[in-house]
Protein 1
Amino acid sequence: MEQFLAYLDQFRYMAGTLGMLFLLCHRTLPHREKEGLRIACSSLVCLLLAFLYVPLQNVLAPYLDRYPFLIGPYWVLMAAVPVLHVRACYEVNFSGALVFSMIASFTENIITALVRNLFVYTLFPDFPSRHPLLYIAFMILAYTFFFLAANAVLVPNLQQGIYAGLREDTATRWVYLFLYIAYFLMMFAIKHLMENLLPPLRQYTELTLTYRYVQLFCVLLLILLSVVMTAVMWYITAHVALASENEVIRRLSRERQTQYEISRENIEMINQKSHDLKHQLQALALVSDEERNRQIQETSRAIDFYDATVKTGNEALDTLLTEKSVYCTNRSIRLSCMVSTENLRKIALIDLYTLLGNAIDNAIESVERIENPEQKVISLSILDRSNILYIQLENYFSGTLTMQGDLPQTQKKDTFSHGYGVKSIRNIVRRYGGTMGIRTEGQVFCLEIVIPT
């Protein structure tokens, strides 16, 4: 029974961590190819490594009283396992993998402190061996409660903002790594005290009360440590995300200033041409056809630039669409925009910029390959429909569209290039609880996005 409970405890710990990682990552991070197979294989390896603790503990048992650090390398491996699992199953940088692994580990250790350290070691040490089925049922109920709480509190924040702007740089990576290592060292010290140094006190009747008080203090210390480290990590992540969003705001500001200068210069050109044409209308009849056409084309080009300025009421969207509209005008592409919504402010700035920027860039890449000038058209609609934000983007494409799952398959030599950035778009839409659909009608590609408001 003792061996069974030891293996059960390792299964509880690792299955709880993997379950929490799945809950946090599945709707937040883009998945790698063959996602199900990756998760299954990685989870199996993680569980086998967790089970390795029992025979390793038996082998090292005679030496651990004097040299407790001998088990240290194993716990270093266990600290790395969640990070490697996230990297193997999801498309995320190292800093992101550390963030999700820390959140999962902190949450799982709070459950461990309550279920194992408080319930078993402190209050009812004989309960698991006497009532193993009730103990398993109790663990399932405890984990279910915490999973539901995490799904209600943590997942929405990860989906809508705090992770959106998490960038990968050396400083951020080392800060997260330091927090992760520091947490596991403190946790290992407290658990060693609870599981190896304090239990011998139970054999002394006069120390029973002292033993329980010290165990209770250690349980509370573990919970406090996990909560504090979660708060610190969350604050740092939110700060990094805010810094990334501010960088996007600064970039939008620079682009908006550039577009303002372009618009101002072209308005001046229009005014000058209008003034010249007004006074030289009769003279135009006397100049050559070539000169007349040249002046008309210059004026038309200035008007086209002026018309490229988009005004939707959302400053970030105006800047993005004006940038793309000017780009399209320079390449004889017609970009039409219809925006009638008040719900764009509910989407984080960096998400809005990435989502629409990728979608329009894909459309531009597609129509640039088309020879027929009548088909160099992109149509974007952003509307409110019955408590949903509806985004539709249509454009012509050449060649054939091959779907791989629910995404278009793209190859470097393929004439159709909508595969790039589509995973990023789908990931953002999922984080806001929405859906993304792709369909074609003849040679028209249609991207539809629905986000509940």
Protein 2
Amino acid sequence: MPKNKKRAVSIASLFRNRNFALLWTGSLTSYTGFFVVTIAFDWYIYTTTGQTLLLTLLGIVEFIPTLSLGIVAGALVDRYDRRRVMILSDVIRALALGALALYVLCYGFNLYFLLGTVFLTSAIGTFFGPASNALLPRLVVKDDLTQANGLLTVGTTIAQFIGNPLGGLLITLVGVGAGLAYNSVTYAVSAICITLLAIPASRALAQKEPGEKPSSIWRDTGEGLRYIRSQPPLLLMTVVSMIANFFSFYNLYMVIYTTRVLGMGAAIFGILLGVLAIGAGIGGILVHHLRLDTDPGLWIPLTWGMTGLPLISLALLPYLPFALASMLALGVFNSVVNVTFLSTVQRVVPDRLLGRYLATDQSLVFAMIPAGIVGGGFLVLHFGVGPAFLIAGVGTALVAWSLLLNPGVREWGRRRSTDSVPDVKVTLG
């Protein structure tokens, strides 16, 4: 009973933290718009053209900026004030989506304009994501990081639960332009929330020792890469993530699974994604309450491999009740992995390198996604959605569970639940 009371106070205290409350509100708002536009794009493109190839192209365009800018983005995030990076990112995305919405309302839908906007907003998001995750340790104490990440995941869950059905509704009743305009407004609201954060500017790399030469972007980028190389467990998890992400194509092709396999429409597609979001919220809370972050090197690979099981279920049991249960489980497992990993990284990676590590990891991990989208598209076209999902599930499970064979990974981040985590100082060669 005392433990439950303590946890309840921890949640309440986080929301009494003005900075965290603003970050959570901005995240909830912007993600709501993001999910509105995502489902609108996927459903509109596929149902209008009926071409799987265009969904593949959309996915590739979305990930190209991460591959090309990710590593350098981390150096910029660490070099400049992270809050200002986030504000500028939100403002640019709001203007880009607003311009696209205006074009659609005046001239109609244009695939090329859409792909260009997706490319631009994805490129800006490459800076925003690492900046946001690297900023969180400045807003809450380290012992509250897991709870904070879990609550941010819950906020994303609420946003997805609202945004997915709303996206389907808007595109049906009003059109794509309304969804674009809505997302533009949500990014503007997020920028206002971040502007109101009351924290000191963070320019760690600008504070050089007397007589030390100013470093360049490329030198800072190289320092981030050397840090990853100096941490074998992190390096191995990054490499395995690249391989496993080949099988993540199922995200893009859920719309085809819904229409072809289940024989359902837009409403069920939105509900399936909503159930996935609910699972993510549950998983985010479980990490803190079950203290999974005290032994992350064990729980991350174990739970990560379990994400393959719902995909296998989707392939072998193509019925709506099983699909709903599978999506719920998939959301739980994915969220447990993400929250546990991110919270541990925020604790053990030095603050001055945190942006570079997060951006580099994001860039390297996402490197395989375009190949997975193409490979997944080939499997769907030639063998069907069910066999493609079966391959994705088995591949994910085997690749993720292989990490358990490495003692360094199993020991990574391990600590007693009652211990405070000290700052880690790393000397780079």
Protein 3
Amino acid sequence: MARPFSPFATRAAYGTRQAFRIAWYLGHGIAMSRLAQQAREGARASGSERPRPHTDRPVPGRNRLIADMTALLQRDLENVEAGIYPLPADHDGSWPALIGRSRLFFQDLPAVRQRREKGLASEVLTDAAGAKRPRYYLQNFHFQSGGWMTDESARLYDTQVEVLFNGTANAIRRQALPPLREAFAGRDQRRLRLVDIGCGTGRFLDFVKQAWPRLPVVGLDLSEAYLGEAARHLERWSRVGFVVANAESIPMPASSCDAVTSIFLLHELPPEVRRIVLREVARVLKPGGRLVVVDSLQYGDAPAYDGLLELFPQSFHEPYYATYVEEDFRAIAERCGLMHSSDAQAFLSKVMVFDKPGSSSEAA
């Protein structure tokens, strides 16, 4: 006999898991900040200190950050209680795995700091890599070791992103699930298809499969290393495929996908490439299909954060971020044949939803 649903048990389980994640990754962020301060003091003493990032725009204080983190987690829990998706399993791994990734993260920080100080951001640009990938892709984004090209980078990435978002990156990703639930309502998940462009290590696809275990999904990425990590992370699931490909030319027929998702991708594309990718998404979506984008806030979305958005590319190698935060995605999407449906803030990020005009019956 099934055990009755217990809201208290759900809230207790959710609160325990998320409190641990936030404490773990926030602790990493505090330690990283202290190490950076020590490095700045050493550089100041030697006369080699670089100019500090600067903004005249408003920057959120600690109370605002905590309030918005709390609002995100509250919404995440409400989605679980409403049955939009199950109590999430973050699949962070065992204690030895967590500690091992933590050790790799801190061991890598001196190399990242050295690249930042010297402005080195093209270490991964080689003739062999350039023969298969566009030039804009072959950079050390965030000044990270290996760019998107190495197994070591793929193993570090999830820790780096969670530290950046104070342990809320997975909760942010899950905010793409409610608009997918709307699009899939009343339909047989086995007959649908979702493609995640720039899927990276597959964290978002894991949450998709937790919500729709029989939904066929495809992860598309330009990095064999990251797709290898994604395959390991998603090996528990069936009906999952991966393809090494550029989202500028999605290797799928026109009107063949019910949903396309893009998580933390658009801000790392040049402006002209964003437009090409959105046109490709419109091509592969069926009439009535849906695009769900999760990415950084933009100027004006939450004015208290505008200074933080200006500071971000000063601290990390993000060559296309300054254009991203000023893009009018509604207008771009409309020119590509997609209609804007909604926007919603998710802490430091936002969820943008676009639909291809028509209906699923037209595609059938």
